[in-house]
Every structure is written in structure tokens, then in C-alpha cells.
Design a protein that fits this description.
With about 100 residues, the protein is α+β, with helices and mostly antiparallel strands. The chain contains two helices and three strands, in the order H-E-E-E-H. A hairpin with a 2-residue loop joins strand 1 and strand 2.
């Protein structure tokens, strides 16, 4: 009986994980860093970015650093949303990787 209950709970958790995955993919996050706009979803998949014209007049190294910083800021926002959603799903359980 216990094995059946565990299997049922595992299937329910799998369904919840699938729902969470869909929710994260649909959650769009807009981030901006020094004029560079980045759009990601909460699964940390990058969707778009734009660079203002005046920034393109800067030197290549400065632009590269700013772009990297902008992507890092957007990624952190996505990770925070992902962590909050995982916390809702798992409650107080500690699951490695979530």
C-alpha cells in the first residue's frame, strides 16, 4: 500500500512540476541596465534585447561589459522568480537543484 501511495504522490508532483514549467515559460521579465533592455522568461531563456543608438558610439569593450551586466541582471531576476515558484511547489522540502 505504501508503495502505491508514494507512486501516486510522485505522479502528482510530476504534474505540478509540468504546470510550474509552463508558468515559468509564460512569465516574461523585463530588465534594463544603463539603457540596455533585456527580456527573459522565468526559465532564464533570453527572448530579446536592445541597445540604444547612443551607446553604440561607445568603444567595443565598454559595450560588451554593459551587455554582459545587463544579461546578468536579467538572469538574476529570472532565478528569483524561479526560486519563488519552486518554493510554492515544494513548501519546506529541500529538493536539490530547485
Amino acid at each position: 500500500m505504501e508503495l502505491f501511495k508514494m507512486a501516486k504522490e510522485a505522479m502528482a508532483m510530476r504534474s505540478k512540476m509540468s504546470d510550474m514549467d509552463k508558468k515559468l515559460k509564460a512569465h516574461i521579465i523585463d530588465a534594463e541596465y544603463k539603457g540596455i533592455k533585456i527580456q527573459v522568461n522565468a526559465k532564464n531563456e533570453f527572448l530579446s534585447f536592445s541597445i540604444p543608438e547612443d551607446l553604440l558610439k561607445e568603444n567595443k569593450t565598454k559595450i560588451e561589459k554593459l551587455i554582459l551586466s545587463a544579461f546578468e541582471a536579467a538572469g538574476k531576476k529570472a532565478q528569483n522568480v524561479m526560486a519563488e515558484e519552486a518554493k510554492k511547489l515544494t513548501g519546506t522540502m529541500k529538493i536539490p537543484g530547485l
